[in-house]
Design brief:
Layout lengths: L8 H6 L14 H13 L15 H14 L4 E5 L6 H11 L4 E5 L12 E5 L3 E5 L5 H8 L11
Parallel strand pairs: 1-2
Antiparallel strand pairs: 3-4
């Protein structure tokens, strides 16, 4: 999207509330509180009044995730969330995967969170596993390259 469009972070996140209900005169106080909470979750509430053109790439990604959360979706699809916000992606999975389906698309096979329940690996063939069933051998067979798995128990 054009980064020089004259809009601030809060207004972008509030757009996630559009279509939730019909209201004359703009957003309700509940809409504003939901948007602010989404900004808090992605840790950019302090940037609410900042123009979008002043944000870094990671901050833009966080803003767009906040807008998606403000919609109160049943399913959240994150495409390459580890590109700029890997810690945030982990926190979102921890906080939201109990009441929302979260689909994470990533080329980073090292990013398999402790909060992920199932992994679908795709390379001309789709193979689904529970996370504990994935091994270096599984990755090697599917992608044709040697991988060493390192388990972090934390």
């Amino acid at each position: 999207f054009p980064r020089n469009f004259p809009i601030n972070v809060a207004d972008v996140v509030l757009m996630g509330r559009l279509g939730k209900h019909w209201r004359v005169g703009g957003y309700s106080s509940q809409d504003r509180e939901i948007a602010l909470e989404a900004l808090r979750v992605v840790e950019i509430a302090a940037l609410a009044m900042t123009p979008v053109k002043e944000l870094s790439g990671g901050q833009v990604q966080r803003m767009l995730i906040a807008r998606a959360l403000a919609c109160e979706p049943e399913i959240l699809v994150l495409d390459e969330p580890t590109a700029n916000v890997d810690v945030l992606a982990e926190a979102l999975l921890k906080q939201y995967n109990e009441h929302m389906t979260i689909i994470v698309v990533s080329h980073d096979i090292a990013f398999i969170s402790a909060y992920v329940k199932r992994v679908a690996c795709l390379n001309k063939t789709l193979i689904c596993h529970k996370t504990e069933a994935i091994s270096g051998k599984t990755i090697d067979e599917l992608y044709g390259s040697s991988v060493k798995m390192i388990h972090h128990n934390h």
